[in-house]
Amino acid sequence: LFCHEAVMGLDAAQDFEAAYESVGAVRDGPALSHDVELLLVSSQGDEAGESLSAHDARMREAEALAARIRDIVEGEEITVEVKCDDDTVERRPAQYGHFGVLFQSMTSVGVYEYALRREGIPFYTVAGRGFYNRQEVRDCLNLLSVLENASDELSLVGALRSPMFALSDDAIFWLTRGDESLWRALGAAAQGRHPHQQHLPPDQVERIAHAHELIARLRAMKDRLSLSELVARMLAETGLAATHLAQFAGRQAVANLRKLTDLARSFEHGGEFSLREFIAWLRDLVVNEHREGLAGVHEETADVVQLLTVHKAKGLEWPIVVVPDVTRDPGGGGGPDVMVRPDLGPVPRMELPDGDTGWGAVAHLIREGQRARGEAERRRLLYVALTRARDYLILSSTYGLKGDDGELSAGLWLQALTKALGIHPDEVAHGDVLCPTGEWRCRISRPQPPEQQRPRERPARAPLEVIDQARASARRGEAEELPALARPIEPEAHLPARFAVTDLQRYRTCPHLFRLRHVRGVPEKTARQDWLHTLSAFERGDIAHKALEIIGREGLARAHAVEDAVALATFPGAVASRMGDAEREELREVLAWFLVEARLDGDGTLVYRDWIANARRLRTEVPFVMPLDDALIEGTIDALVEDSDGAWRILDYKTGASPSEQALEGYRFQIGLYCAAVEAITGGTPADAALVLLDATQVRRVDPAEAAEGALAAAREVIACVAAGHFPPGTRCRRESCPLAYACELA
Predict the structure, then answer these.
(1) Interatomic CA distance for residues 214 and 638, integer angstroms
(2) SS3 for 90?
(3) Which of 320, 306, 330, 314 is nearest to 384 (CA)?
(4) What is the DSSP letter of 522?
(5) Is residue 577 classed as helix, strand or coil in its secondary structure?
(6) What distance lies between CA 634 and its chain's CA centroid?
(7) Which pLDDT score, from 0 to 100, does residue 236 have?
(8) Between 20 and 30 A from 283 (CA), which of 133, 181, 428, 499?
(9) Buried (b) or exposed (e) across 292-319, using 16+ Cβ within 10 A?
(10) Cα–Cα distance, 121 to 112 (Å, whole number)
């Protein structure tokens, strides 16, 4: 083969060319009718005159090659020499570990990896780069980014979709439908209070809860662990390595994860300890495709097919060598602006008469010399590739035809091989055995493409006259309406099955507002305010609730209970910076009134002293979920007090100016549901309940049994109306205070 002038030849015309020197075999090959197998795959499509794309043709070749490797191993048709433990040599059927697949370039190796994986063939890619683009490394980088910054939603989505948490795309879609950030939405869904909780399957809710709890725990410890410890803890907590071990090529993924831990340790030894700097360093390596090989995972004797470049195969041998993609030629990038040759010096582009730039005669001379040198180097590389085989050689390639005479369209290697064999790829049949020199034999294989690898049928293009007729009809107004390809989905088809207490009250205030917010998902617009310097009503109420939670039952026992609670409730954070001295003083006065002077409106009972300070147990911010017919009611009780005799009392704190009768009725509805929830959970009706109007300095007593009965009846009515899709406008609509007035078609 190498004696042929098209491949290498016996004489070197230039000093940079290599000439072949004959060598003789010192051992016998396998008892086959041929020594070399040439697998030819046409790039011609199924339709006459149609050609496959380079990717589709290469995919067809890869599938055929993978099937051939499997047939050789399973059919035991080829034997190879194997050295035994006693240093004797015997011939045994070929195994996967006897194959070496040598590529000119690793650019398209993924196509062949995919084909081998589909055939169930174990393989190992000996790559000089690719580590930072491995999916398992990217998954770890995403989670590390989330640990550093939970607001990095792109990284959070990547981590949630990874094998670490395995959230579905549908689950992530519903998580992002709310107004909150994805991280807050994840927490809400984990607690069962996401606005679209009903759309999340139970298995996804379980994964969401696990993801939120695990990420929160890792975030809490990230500043107490070194980088390598954090990466190791992350891998251990997520079980990512174990997950990959259950998948194909899992050992390689696990080895890469261990290598990532080693890289973090090396990063620390370099004097860098910041997680943010480590993430930035990794991202830079990913973007710039830094040369970093995959972690070693197999021993030399492992029974796996090895994939590597011809350059890396220098000095190595395999019983069976496969050289795929023979027709590939190295791509040429953009040409330089200056060419250089030692004896001619630098040669720049010249300005042409038409004002453009181009190369002169000297530059073309240099380019021709570079082309000749490149061709000589590729012939030497072909020699290296083909001489790595000890027993059997398989060459595979796609080929195309060009011109009316069907001239072969192929790269240098395939052109050289076909000339040496004296064949045209389109004129040989499957199974033909060629013997051009009488010393070596080549068998032609022409596999039929598998059904799944056939290119997709392309829709026929409309004749130009049909397009012209359609445009003319449209101008005349005679165009037919296009048929609908998809039926629009009404938002009402996804009605909620889980209701917060405040959501139910919102329906009672304005059903149409409820529909916009909770069925259609329209975000609210809050009233404009100087958010840098003032607090919203919600923020002020939240601070008051936190202060009361801090005071607990010891408000009368500690001298500075109010001052300490206000200081803790407003420190630190952006809210505290916007709370002025006057607002802090108002809050102190309100809290002091509640501790000392607040009395029930009926009998003058001191609420804090008699209900809270002397109670056996006080629970604050108590969440609950209560079934009601086919729905779930959820909410949070501000204060739940247990007396020494086991009786329960409920307190609901409200801030703001003196409420109207309509607002008071809404408050009674809410506390009535709290009473019903306590009765459902404890089995007994609460002994008492009260609305504490802090800013109005009033305490309104509520009969628990009566309030619970009325609230349950009203809640059932709301749920039935929602299920029926009944959303009439509110009777007392106030556009100036409605957060959805901008989206309300009735306003």
Answers:
(1) 28
(2) strand
(3) 314
(4) P
(5) helix
(6) 32
(7) 87
(8) 181
(9) bebbebbeeeeebbbbbbbebbeeeebb
(10) 11
CA angle 73/79/85 to nearest 5° reads 105
Residue pointed to by tokens 């059919």: 75
Q: Residue 569 — pLDDT band, cuts 50, 70, 90?
A: confident
Query: What are the pLDDT digits (tens) for 523-567?
Result: 776 554 444 446 667 777 888 888 888 888 887 777 778 888 877
**Whether the predicted pLDDT of 616 surpasses 60:** yes
Q: Determine the angle formed by the axes of helices 153-161 and 135-148, rounding to 10 degrees.
A: 130
The neighbouring-strand residues paired with 125 are 307
CA atoms within 13 A on the CB side of 478: 6
Nearest to residue 185, comparing CAs of 160, 219, 222?
Answer: 160
Whole-number percent of the chain with pLDDT over 90: 15
Average of pLDDT values for 251-257? 78
pLDDT digits (tens, 9 = 90+) for 601-615: 877 889 888 898 888
Verify cis geometry, omega within 30 degrees of 0, for the bond prior to 572: yes
Side-chain-side CA neighbours of 407 within 13 Å: the count stands at: 4
Q: What is the pLDDT of residue 267?
A: 81
- Type of residue at 45: G
Angle between helical axes of 661-682 and 704-723 (0-180°, round to 10): 100
Q: How do beta strands 350-351 and 357-358 pair?
A: antiparallel
Q: Which residues contact 348 (CB under 8 A, 6 or more apart)?
A: 337, 338
Contact 492, 725 (CB under 8 A): yes
Return d(Cα 395, Cα 415) in angstroms, integer.
13
- 261 alpha-carbon distance from chain centroid: 21
- Decide if 195 contacts 177 (C-beta within 8 A): yes
- Alpha carbon separation from 507 to 419, 517, 559, 582 (Å, rounded): 83, 10, 44, 36
Mean of the per-residue pLDDT values for the chain? 79
Q: What are 455's two structure tokens?
A: 């290119």
pLDDT band per the 50, 70, 90 thresholds, residue 263: confident
Inter-CA distances, 463 with 183, 468, 470, 475, Å: 53, 9, 11, 19
Residue 570 has pLDDT above 50, yes or no: yes
Distance, first Cα to last Cα, the chain: 87
**3-state helix/strand/coil string of 476-516:** CCCCCCCCCCCCCCCHHHHCCCEEEHHHHHHHHHCHHHHHH
Give the Cα separation of 263 and 3 in Å (integer).
49
Query: Per-residue DSSP letters for 79-137?
Result: EEEEE-TTS-EEEEE--GGGEEEEES-STTHHHHHHHHHHTT--EEE--SS-GGGSHHH
Question: What is this structure's pTM?
Answer: 0.48
Q: State the DSSP code for 638.
A: E
Measured between alpha carbons, how far is 694 from 587 in angstroms, rounded to an integer? 9
Beta strands, E only, 503-630: 617-628
The model's pLDDT over 691-747, given as tens digits with 9 standing for 90+, comes to 999 888 899 999 999 999 999 999 999 998 888 888 888 776 676 677 777 677 654
- 511 with 721: CB under 8 angstroms? yes
CA 609 to chain centre: 55
User: 156 pLDDT exceeds 90?
Assistant: yes
Which residue spans within 363-472 are E strands per DSSP? 389-402, 407-409, 433-434, 442-445
Distance separating alpha carbons of residues 44 and 681, to the nearest angstrom: 73
Tell me the pairing of strands 389-402 and 407-409: antiparallel
Nearest CA to 666 among 498, 499, 500, 509? 509
Give residue 24's pLDDT.
Answer: 63
